[in-house]
Amino acid sequence: MPLENVGGRWHPAAMGTLVYSTIGSLDGYVNDARGAFDWAEPPEDVIGSINDVLEGVDTYLYGRRMYEVMHVWETDPDFAGPGLSPETARFSRGWRVAEKVVFSATLATPVTARTRIEARYSADAVRDVVDATDGAVTIEGPTLATHALRDGLVDEVHRYVAPTLVGGGTPVFPAGIRLDLELVEQRRFDRGFALLRYAVR
Length: 201
What we know:
By secondary structure, the chain is an alpha/beta fold. It has a single domain, classed as Dihydrofolate Reductase, subunit A (3-Layer(aba) Sandwich), CATH 3.40.430. About 25% of the residues lie in helices and about 30% in strands. The protein has six helices and twelve strands. A hairpin with a 5-residue loop joins β11 and β12. The N and C termini lie close together (about 10 Å).
């Protein structure tokens, strides 16, 4: 179910919504062949756009690797300190108060609050999380999102595009997935970034 624009901000409709949100290069990678993604550091207005969506998000779904990237927003003092920009500080606050579900067979104990571990991915487990909320749920990281896309669980795709070609790395979308999408929003941001927001038909 698509999100609804109310007063210039995106809010979930009356039922749970699963959103795959990602920042990637123009040629379709979330990191480069070295595993680096510093080239995808978003400008302040992109972070603000992400925050507008995340205000309606109740739960983040992660695989282990993405969780290990993201948990610094709670575990590293540098990611919660006074030196953050206004939109980055807003993101940090929102991340800490949201629920997190981490799908991992090897992670025994979470290092953040409001976090639980699911030993294995299943479509039913994701549906249970989405059905339990009237808000939005984001699924982050292409490995976990691949499963949800193949299982037909994703309602929206938010692709923030960095004006960079990296030539290889981890793809935003894996091979072998066919989906019909409807473009419902496109925006331009500072430094050549852009948003393409699609509803899954």
